[in-house]
Write a structure and sequence with these properties.
Elements lengths: L14 E7 L2 E7 L1 H14 L3 H11 L6 H15 L1
Antiparallel strand pairs: 1-2
Amino acid sequence: MANRVIDLPPMTPPMKRSVTIDGHRTSVSLEDAFWRGIADAAKARGVTRAQLIGQIDHARPPEVGLATALRLFVVAEMRRG
């Protein structure tokens, strides 16, 4: 198999941001592309980013971490779009 050049998107290390869910502050580390995806999805739904993160947090299974749930949500949104 020949080596092919792959065109990668801009990459950033995970960035930690604080969010408040049900009055409780927590920190989540995500790459910038996922933060942008969450922001876009929140805007499309007419809610704040924090509200959307709270909705995702409440809907996720307890064995799935919040950062994982957020990443999978963004991927699912991209597939729908």
